[in-house]
Amino acid sequence: MTGEATAGGGPAGRGWREATEAALYGPGGFYRRPEGPAGHFRTSVHASALFAGAVARLLCRVDEALGRPATLDFVDMAAGRGELVSGVLAALPAPVAARTRAYAVEIAGRPSGLDERIVWRSEPPPAVTGLLFANEWLDNVPVDVAEVDAAGVPRLVLVADDGSERLGPPVPGPEARWLARWWPLPAEEGLRAEIGLPRDRAWAAAVGRMEQGLAVAVDYAHTAPARPPYGTLTGFREGRETAPVPDGSCDITAHVALDACAEACRAARTTPTPPGAAPAPADAARTPSEQAHTLTGARLLTQRAALRALDLAGARPPLALASTDPAAYVRALASAGEAAELTAPGGLGDFGWLLVPVGIADPLA
Ligand SMILES: C[S@@+](CC[C@H](N)C(=O)[O-])C[C@H]1O[C@@H](n2cnc3c(N)ncnc32)[C@H](O)[C@@H]1O
Prior knowledge:
- The structure is a single chain.
- Helix 3 crosses helix 4 (83-91).
- The protein starts with 13 loop residues before the first strand and ends in a 7-residue tail after the last strand.
- It is globular.
- It has a seven-stranded mixed sheet, sandwiched between helices. Strands 1, 6, 7, 8 and 9 form a five-stranded antiparallel sheet that branches. A three-stranded antiparallel sheet has the order 13-12-14.
- The chain is 31% helix and 22% strand.
- Residues 1-10 and 271-294 have low confidence and may be disordered.
- It has helices at residues 16-25, 44-47, 49-65, 83-91, 94-99, 173-182, 197-208, 258-270, 288-291, 303-309, 320-324, 326-342, and strands at 14-15, 72-77, 100-105, 118-121, 128-135, 144-148, 154-159, 165-170, 192-195, 210-219, 221-222, 234-237, 240-242, 251-253, 256-257, 299-302, 352-358.
- It is α/β, with parallel strands linked by helices.
- The longest helix has 17 residues, at 49-65.
- A hairpin with a 2-residue loop joins strand 12 and strand 13.
- The chain has a domain at 30-142 and 196-315 and 343-358: Rossmann fold, CATH 3.40.50.12710.
- The protein binds S-adenosylmethionine.
- S-adenosylmethionine binds at residues 31, 37, 43, 45-46, 78-80, 83-84, 105-108, 135-137, 140.
- This is DUF185 domain-containing protein.
- GO terms for molecular function: protein-arginine omega-N symmetric methyltransferase activity.
- InterPro entries: NDUFAF7, NDUFAF7_sf, SAM-dependent_MTases_sf.
- It comes from Streptomyces collinus (strain DSM 40733 / Tue 365).
């Protein structure tokens, strides 16, 4: 934490949420740049086509659970340049692909040359029957940061364009309540927390678009028993982790309190709208019978467990294959390496998968 004056960026005056919003999504923002996310870091989607294959198998299970509807929605939420939705369409069995309506939901513009079957939107369609899949979205939903001062009071951290910080006012009402519920800060100077309320709301709104099917959020996550004492706010630029600087030059990200997101969507889906009152925003486009769908059990598991449940095979091929079919052996070896990366302890395998079935049984159970 720095003092009052800030070098280069003027006096720090904005919370991290507002500063990040402008830096990532404002005019000329980081995520509006032509190179896209893949120019700066690797997600599971970029790591291997096996990931899209597993998501395609998940979509097929959702399709079965829905009784093979005439139109099956697949929504790639926060789609980057549409890599996942393209891979899923390519991996689907032809009869399922023929019934699939594929959406990429993304703040950035549609990339040229994208498969014409993919509908590009800036927000999810109002009613989804199928699978909504959000890979590394919520960590990029901007959040404010709180830090405990010398008197033991959690204060908002203010930041200048050069990344220098100072403490602002005490954390206000709804954010303070979120901290108390999900990330209580002991009165020890310097402890920090990222206030996940905007992510809870974003996820609840996305789940609110589900008519029937499954919503999945995949991200690096933590839960109440193991919050990081100083938070996780960081930056990425050209493949490297950097200090987070809200000037549009780098990604700004923080791990996601997925347990809070799970609870937020459960509450949003099960709270009845009082008679005569306007429906909650997430339910605004829904009929009363649709709103009556309750969540049949949101569940959090690791990517390793989720991909194993989706039959992602990581076993090395038998050595005998090397002599009978060397090309197949090399392919199988590469595939095993990619599966190992997607399920690696200490890496992508530790990511959290938040599954929210809506009106169907959990297809990974
Ligand atoms: C870390 S990238 C992940 C891209 C892709 N899902 C992947 O896994 O490779 C995050 C993406 O989320 C997008 N994004 C953030 N907030 C969004 C929102 N509210 N609606 C649509 N896209 C959003 C950003 O523009 C960015 O492309």
